[in-house]
């Protein structure tokens, strides 16, 4: 049977034509899909810039459905869910990213960090801790350690906080020596409640050694020595505080005066307090000096010297208490009024958030900032 070449001649052009039509259809479909995805993406960006988060989320969901392999859209969508407070959906987005086998190491670490932030914002501290711990050795290591430090402080896990702070300090990601000293003092308080006297002393010795300019370590160790009957050693610690952390002397002035009376070492204490008062008058230092003031000047003389150097309603109220007016009933009423008016002026105020308290805090109970309370009262700020 002879082969008819006519069919071949007709078949080649037909096959070429069909291939060309198919390629044009595929190209057209690709262009349509390529245009739809960017439109949804840019529409989401536009909503985001206009602070229309709900509309932006809808647009990004549409874009992700059109191209499920786009990791950047997944990250954008997850961050929007987190900012909106929809933490469950944010977690699902980032867990979906982590489950993808085609994700490279850099993007996987990024998804792990985003997932940890989801748990942290949702208040799931145990899950956040677990997620953050997996970022050790990654590009997000420093951020993860800082977040872990915040978690351990909130949960008052001072041993873990100390370990993380020491890692940050050794990695030169900031100065955390003072923070470590605070943690040591917190651990010393826990050990004191458990009756571990030797451990308390060791922790406070280390706190003083690590951060000699932190007043808390000196004051805590002084209080411990005084409880153990070593009043002389307790006073030595406070005198060392005056040299290492002179700005914090008002916090220790009262205890210093009491120890001076116990030990009979009033001269060095009067000299130390007097020098501090000459540099910057302080209510607490004046009260300590008034307690130790020799006659004939006495306490009233100390109060007057303070008022001459710096006006103070608190000191004026204390000076008036030692005066005798012609009308005792009027004096009593005036005294109560002054004490009532000066009461709020004796508080301490956080320099970070403005939270006021009657006592001095090393860590603000309002904003959780460390060393944000000045050693001076509200009236002196």
UniProtKB/TrEMBL annotation:
<feature type="topological domain" description="Cytoplasmic">
    <location>
        <begin position="24"/>
        <end position="381"/>
    </location>
</feature>
<comment type="function">
    <text>Modulates cellular lipopolysaccharide (LPS) levels by regulating LpxC, which is involved in lipid A biosynthesis. May act by modulating the proteolytic activity of FtsH towards LpxC. May also coordinate assembly of proteins involved in LPS synthesis at the plasma membrane.</text>
</comment>
<keyword id="KW-0812">Transmembrane</keyword>
<keyword id="KW-0677">Repeat</keyword>
<dbReference type="InterPro" id="IPR019734">
    <property type="entry name" value="TPR_rpt"/>
</dbReference>
<dbReference type="InterPro" id="IPR030865">
    <property type="entry name" value="LapB"/>
</dbReference>
<keyword id="KW-0802">TPR repeat</keyword>
<dbReference type="GO" id="GO:0008653">
    <property type="term" value="P:lipopolysaccharide metabolic process"/>
</dbReference>
<keyword id="KW-1133">Transmembrane helix</keyword>
<feature type="binding site">
    <location>
        <position position="364"/>
    </location>
    <ligand>
        <name>Fe cation</name>
    </ligand>
</feature>
<feature type="binding site">
    <location>
        <position position="350"/>
    </location>
    <ligand>
        <name>Fe cation</name>
    </ligand>
</feature>
<protein>
    <recommendedName>
        <fullName>Lipopolysaccharide assembly protein B</fullName>
    </recommendedName>
</protein>
<dbReference type="GO" id="GO:0005506">
    <property type="term" value="F:iron ion binding"/>
</dbReference>
<feature type="repeat" description="TPR">
    <location>
        <begin position="71"/>
        <end position="104"/>
    </location>
</feature>
<dbReference type="GO" id="GO:0009898">
    <property type="term" value="C:cytoplasmic side of plasma membrane"/>
</dbReference>
<dbReference type="InterPro" id="IPR041166">
    <property type="entry name" value="Rubredoxin_2"/>
</dbReference>
<feature type="binding site">
    <location>
        <position position="367"/>
    </location>
    <ligand>
        <name>Fe cation</name>
    </ligand>
</feature>
<dbReference type="Pfam" id="PF13176">
    <property type="entry name" value="TPR_7"/>
</dbReference>
<keyword id="KW-0408">Iron</keyword>
<dbReference type="GO" id="GO:0046890">
    <property type="term" value="P:regulation of lipid biosynthetic process"/>
</dbReference>
<dbReference type="InterPro" id="IPR011990">
    <property type="entry name" value="TPR-like_helical_dom_sf"/>
</dbReference>
<comment type="similarity">
    <text>Belongs to the LapB family.</text>
</comment>
<feature type="domain" description="LapB rubredoxin metal binding">
    <location>
        <begin position="348"/>
        <end position="372"/>
    </location>
</feature>
<dbReference type="Pfam" id="PF18073">
    <property type="entry name" value="Zn_ribbon_LapB"/>
</dbReference>
<keyword id="KW-0479">Metal-binding</keyword>
<feature type="binding site">
    <location>
        <position position="353"/>
    </location>
    <ligand>
        <name>Fe cation</name>
    </ligand>
</feature>
<keyword id="KW-1003">Cell membrane</keyword>
<keyword id="KW-0472">Membrane</keyword>
<keyword id="KW-0997">Cell inner membrane</keyword>
